[in-house]
Amino acid sequence: METIKMQNIQKKYGDKIALTKVNLTVNKGEVVSLIGPSGSGKSTLLRCINFLEVPSQGNVLIEGQPIDYKVNSIGKLTIGSKIKMSKVRSKVGMVFQHFNLWKHKTVLENIIEGPMIVKKMPKEKAIEIADELLNKVGLYDKRNEHPSDLSGGQQQRIAIARALAMEPSVMLFDEATSALDPEMVNEVLQIMMGLAKEGMTMMIVTHEMGFAKQVSDRVVFMEDGQIVTIGTPNEIFASNNNPRVTKFLQNLQPLS
Ligand code: ADP
């Protein structure tokens, strides 16, 4: 089954083209990593899937459902129905570089908010799911603390639990480990690896090439707002795959 289908996506910011002619399908259970130089459009692509950005052209379908963009009076795509968008968006979990947890809420409150507000889940049920997820990310004992009491790695594990609480069809990770101290990167990657092994459909923007190689079914290499090549990790990381990929990998500091 096709979990995500991006059809001919273009995204412009003013005159600047951030994405052009992006076609990509991610099937259920697949793990797809996006790699490429800074500014190549990886984050914009994820944000179009989560509807944080409206493409300038093209369409995004989640489990076959479009959110129906409308063309406004100046010819720009806009969101047709906020209710429909909210429904489709609730299938997409996203984890950001800077966690984006609510600072004034406890860990537990951060996790139950989405299911209660968006899914109208009874509080008891939301707490039950949250506690299960807190155990899964190894942070049940932190449930009544506030994000500022936690390390960066712990905050990101909570952010993952919060996204999972919505029972999404796909999880998007936008440089989820880039803001972490090096010693905290692994605890987050391990949670992501566990999700992949459980069959979660995932799209991952990462600079951790070793991890991308290990976890991905397919790797997408982007440059200048376009998908340059897509392949299995072995294909993409093979030294003779594509000179642009090779150059990108050689320029990474440090090589991993
Ligand atoms: P990546 O994630 O690969 O680093 P981005 O998707 O963040 O790339 O950015 C792609 C291009 O779009 C870059 O040139 C960036 O400067 C531009 N861009 C991204 N977001 C905005 C924005 N909100 N306004 C203007 N330009 C943007």
Average pLDDT reading: 93
Reported for the largest beta sheet, the result is:
6 strands, mixed
Strand proportion? 25-35%
- Gross morphology: globular
Strand tally is 12
The helix content, as a percent range, equals 25-40%
Helix/strand/pairing category = alpha/beta
Structure description:
This protein has nine helices and twelve strands. The chain is α/β, with parallel strands linked by helices. Strands 8-9-10-3-11-12 form a six-stranded mixed sheet, sandwiched between helices. Strands 2-1-4-5 form a four-stranded antiparallel sheet, with helices on one face. A two-stranded antiparallel sheet has the order 6-7. α3 (107-117) crosses α4. The two termini are 33 Å apart. The site of adenosine-5'-diphosphate has 11 residues, from β2 and α1.
Topology summary:
Blueprint: E1 2-13, E2 16-27, E3 31-35, H1 42-49, E4 57-62, E5 65-66, E6 69-71, E7 77-79, H2 82-89, E8 92-95, H3 107-117, H4 123-136, H5 152-164, E9 170-174, H6 182-197, E10 201-205, H7 209-215, E11 218-223, E12 226-231, H8 233-237, H9 243-251
Parallel strand pairs: 3-10, 3-11, 8-9, 9-10
Antiparallel strand pairs: 1-2, 1-4, 4-5, 6-7, 11-12
Helix pairs in contact: 3-4, 3-5, 4-5, 5-6
Bound molecules: adenosine-5'-diphosphate (ADP).
Adenosine-5'-diphosphate binds near residues 18, 43 and 44.
